[in-house]
Structure formats: C-alpha cells, structure tokens
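Supplementary material to the annual report.
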Amino acid sequence: MSDAADTVSRIRGRLEGPNTYGNSRAFWVGFAVLVTALAAYPQMTDPYTVIQTARYFAVAFLALSLCFIWGYAGVLSFGQVAFFGVAAYTFGAIGINLSSATGVTVAIVGAVAVGTLAAALLGYFMFYGGVRDTYVTIMTLVVALVLNTFMAQTAGSEWAIGEAQLGGFNGMTGIPNLTLGIGETGIVFERAGLYYALLVSLVVAYLGLRVLLNSSFGMTMVAIREDEARTETFGYDVPFVKLVVFTIGGAIAAVGGVFYASWGNYVDPSVFGIAFAALPVVWVSVGGRESLLGAIGATLAIEQMRTALSSGIGPIGSEWALVIVGGLLLSVILFMPAGVVPTLDSLVDSVQDRRSDQGQSTQPTEEAVE
Amino acid sequence: MSTQDINVKQQPAVAATGGDTDTLLATEQLTKKFGGLTAVDSVDFSITEGEIRCLIGPNGAGKSTLLELITGQLSPTEGNIYFDGTDLTGLDTHARIDTGLSVKFQSPHVYENLSVTENLRVPLQRTDRDTQRVLAETLDRIALSGEADTQASELSHGEKQRLEIGMAITLDPKLMLLDEPVAGMSIDETDDVAKLIRSLHDDGMTFLVVEHDMEFVRRISERVTVLDQGSILRQGPIEDIESDDEVRRIYLGEDA
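Predicted assembly:
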C-alpha cells in the first residue's frame, strides 16, 4: 500500500509545481473524471459529433504548442500553423506515395520530423540573429503567409511530389488515414478510433509538458520570459534555450498537423492563412497563456461555437462567426487579461483565503497594500 | 604590471607585491568608443584574488561601461579581458559567467512575479550545489528567511537589492561584480549590505564594487580605483585616495 502511495506522490511531484495550475488532489480527481467522460463520449453521441470533436482535438495541439512557447517562454509566435501545415503536407506527400501500413507509419514520423526541423531552422535564424518580441511575432506570421501564397500557386500537374499532387488552392487530396503497422497489416485510426488516438495523444502531451514545465528547464523558461537579460547573467544560454523551446513547440504543432491531415484526408493552403493563424492566439489568450488545460478547453469551446455558428443560429448568419470570436478575444483581454483559467484560479484562491480568514479571525492579515 | 604605470602616476606599493599568480581579473588596453565618445580609454586594470576593490569616479567616468565590458554586455573596441587564466574577450555573457563571474547591476532586476525562493532557484539550479542547504544558507545570509514564499514584487527596495545579491552569490562565484549595491538604501539597509559583503569576503569571495557612497566604500574597501573620463586617475589604499588633492578636486570635491 505505502509503495503505491509513494509512487503516486512521486508522480505527482513531477507533475506539480508553481509553473502549472491544478496542483491539488481535487484537481486530479476532476481531471480523471474529465478524461473518463471524454472517453465515454463517443458512446453517448452521434458519429458526426465524434468526428467533429476529433478535429477540435487535432487543432488543440496548436493551442498546446503556443501555450508552451508563449505562456512560459514569452515567445509569441503567430505562425505555429506553419509547422502544423508543413507536417500536414509532408504526411500527405509521404503517405500518398508509400500507401502501405509501414508507409503511413513512416509518413507520421517523417512529417513530425520535417515540421520540427522547420521550427528548429526558423528558430535558429531568429534567436541567434537577435530577433525578439514583436519581431518574432511578425516574422512567424510572415513565414506562414509566404507558405500560404506559395502553396496556393501549386495548381499545375508539375507541382507534385511523386504521386502526391500539391493541388494549389484546392489542396492535396487522398491523404491516407492514420495507420500504425508493418507491411500491409496495421491498425487504422478513423472515426472513433482516430478520436481515441487523439485523446490519448493529447493527454500524453499535456502530462509530458507539465513534467517539463515543472522541471528546472521550465523554471529556466519562466526566468527567460520574466527577464531575458538578467537570466543571461546567471550563465544561461538564452538563444539556445529559446531555440529548444521553439523546436519543441514546433514538434507539438507538427503532431497536430499529422492528425489534421489524416482526419480530413485532405489539406489545403488555408492552414497557412491568416484566419487560421490567428485562431491559436485567440484560444490561448482566452483559455489563459499559462494554462495548458485552459488553452485546450478554450480551443474545444471556441471551435464548437464556430461550428455551431457556421450553420447560423436564428437570425445570426455564419458570416458572424469570426466577428463573435474576435469580440470574445477583445472582452477577455479587457476583463480577464490573464485568461479564463488563471482568473478562475485566483477567484477560487481568494474565496478560500476569505474562508480561512473567517475561520481564524484573530490572526492579523498581513497584506501589504500600497 | 608595468603597463599600469602608463595611466597611473602614483602607483601604490600593493600592485608590486601582488604577483601575477594572484591576479584574478586583468584588462589590457581596454577601450570602448561610442561614436566619437571614448567611454573607456586604454584601461589596464587588475584585481587580486581575495580583495574588495571599489571603483569610484564622477558620473560618466566609465565605471558601468567597464563593468559591462567585463560581463560581456558590451564588446570592447580594443583590448582584452583576462579572468582566472581565461581570455574572456570573445565570449558571450553566459560563457563568461560560467568561468566564475557573477554580477548585480545597478537597478534591481529580480523576477517580480516569482517568489523569493524561486528567484534564488533560477541561478542555483545551474550549479551542482546542494539546493536545500544553499537555499537555507542564502536566505539566512540575506536575512530573507521569513520571506521565502513572498512574491518578489512585494519586497521593499532594500530587500530586493539583498535578494539580488543573494541570487548572484548562489552561483558561488570567484569574482562578484556589484554596481551600486546600496543605491537608494536607508542607513540600516546599507549597513546590512556592508556586513553581507564583509562576511562573504571572509569566506574568500573577491569583489569589484562600483559605488558612490564614500562612507560605504570606507567600510568595505581595502583598495580603491578612481576612474575619470575613461581612464584610471588613481589607485591605492582608501586613505591615500581620500587625501589625494586631484581626486578631491575632481570627484570627492563634489560632496564637500
């Protein structure tokens, strides 16, 4: 018994820390309930909703990736979709050419590797070239937009990688389903299967990032976010750390891209477009820059809302969807600048403080208000 | 050591006794030009292991520039910097810190949104020192044991300055560079910092301190270097410097 308890507390020790929200027993119980509910969801709803939800999970990797680099290292990338899209196209190109189970498995690895490499390359030029702050934001957006323009003009049949037609504005079609296997036998993940693969991957990515953020590396990231120059004078190689962070972020976005391409068997240049590029920034701002779970939650909620609005609700036409998302972003920035989850967390804290104050009212409160 | 005599007229005896083996930091013809302005002008300057050296001089004398050249925030127009047998000149700041330097700049730069303990952890986690022991020891040393979990933004100015010195010393540096460690502090706070520096010095730490407060300099320092217009004007024991006519006219005279 005590061995099991030891293991649990050791695991919790790795997952918990000042850099992440949700460090209580109650949180983990809630988390387990949430994951169980999501696992049961496909049994309780129609197949169409399951497929839609799988798409939200796929793009939630973008939110995780941006939350990680922006929320914790202060690097606001407006172009995480670039690595998402590069991985999606790469998965398509390799998958279409090597259509066997092994081929698609290779495509998964290859696509994540290419997306990651793209992030490492861009990160290297930016961080070792001394590009900072808003310039990183602008540069990453420009990279995404350049890819958008480039991919849109690949319409001719000369634009093909082997059998995979890039397809220009209309995109690449016939991308295989996600498959893991050897030779011609493999497990194909589609519909509910893809949903579960995504759910498991998302949970693993979330927990993995929590461990990383609560390690000394996470502390270094936060130190760089708070004061880059000072952190350098403690002997940290700041450009290198930022490069590593940016590359990890790119890898997470790339995983999302692979899922996305296999989800719709299709990818088009709009994954690099400004509307899609802006969405991760909205999700993360709304959910909370420093809350991984908040970012995922906001992604699911906002995407659900966009889907609902795209068919129009009552007098509200579909063209209002992005306007409403924009309005949501503005109100959150105005009223909850840290995002929904951090605001709720401090609300809960202050309620608990008040309760414990009432409990021991003889204790003087030491609050330094200036 | 003979090169020092180019700029220094009254070279005190100490430099002669300090053999090359004890020299921890040395600059060689160090020059920094900003456009037409020469902020640091061919400075040959050295610090012996185990001393507390104060760097004084009027505003614009090049004190902070010299410090930033040593840490690598600025790169020199000409000249070299040697520290503990390593040529630092071409190294990035972080690589210089790894050779055993630590620095506290003029205005406090603590991590405002982190707790006192977290602030200390950031530099400490880079070392292989025993985290818990060093944390407790450092908190005690900077008299912030009671504030271990307080967010740094809630500390007073004096506490922030102490915390920053605490952060810098967790690296266990051979040479500690302090830029005006007591600027804006009350008499009591200044007193605490003086005691802190003396106790670290007793444990073998070498200091280079840029300071305006002569009372404070008198309390901590053994040797003083006077910079003026980017060059070393005088160098020697504090009492010699304070009685020097030219130093009094150029620098100390301002206070009289």
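Chain A touches chain B at residues 18, 216, 219-220, 222-223, 226-227, 229-238, 368 (CB under 8 Å).
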